[in-house]
């Protein structure tokens, strides 16, 4: 599945930021200072989750680690 930048429509490997559900590539994010906005938390601008190792799919279960409640 290809990822397209919502601003310029180009394909990209990974999004840099998200505006709502729209993925924005690193180039546009830099151009429009979206990283800064994401960092301060303006509107619905969010940093994209960092990818640890490219090409690694599958067992990504460590998101849910709040299970030791009594
Ligand atoms: Zn773009």
Description of the molecule:
There is one protein chain. This protein is an alpha+beta fold and 70 residues long. The protein has a domain at 3-50. Helices cover 19% and strands 19% of the residues. Strands 4-3-5 form a three-stranded antiparallel β-sheet. It has a two-stranded antiparallel sheet with strand order 1-2. A hairpin with a 2-residue loop joins strand 3 and strand 4 (22-24). The model has no long low-confidence stretch (mean pLDDT 83). The structure holds zinc ion. Residues 5, 7-8, 10, 25, 27-28 line the site of zinc ion. Zinc ion binds at residues 5, 7-8, 10, 25, 27-28.
Largest sheet: 3 strands, antiparallel
Helix amount: 10-25%
Low-confidence stretches: none
Class by alpha and beta content: alpha+beta
What would the average pLDDT be, to the nearest integer? 83
Give the beta-strand count: 5
Q: What is the CA-CA span between the terminal residues?
A: 40 Å
Counting copies of identical and different chains, the oligomeric state is: single chain
Tally of contiguous helical segments: 2
Q: What is the approximate shape? A: globular
Task: Determine Rg (CA atoms, Å).
Answer: 14 Å
For the largest sheet, list the strands in their spatial order: 4-3-5
One letter per element, helices H and strands E, the order comes to EEEEHHE
């Amino acid at each position: 599945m290809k990822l397209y930048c919502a601003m310029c429509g180009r394909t990209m490997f990974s999004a840099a930021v998200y505006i709502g559900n729209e993925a924005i590539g690193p180039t546009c994010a830099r151009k429009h200072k979206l990283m800064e906005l994401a960092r301060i938390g303006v509107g619905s601008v969010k940093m994209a989750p960092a990818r640890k190792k490219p090409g690694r799919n599958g067992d990504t279960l460590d998101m849910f680690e709040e299970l030791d409640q009594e």
